[in-house]
Amino acid sequence: MELGGSDAFIVLKDADLDQTVKWAVWGKMNNMGQCCVAAKRLIVVEELADRFLDSSRPRWRHSSQEIRWTRRRRSTLSTEAALIKVLHQIKQAVAKGAIVVMGGKRIDRPGSFMQPTILTNIKPGNPAFRRNFSAGRALLPGQK
Question: Is residue 66 annotated as part of the catalytic site, yes or no?
Answer without folding.
Answer: no
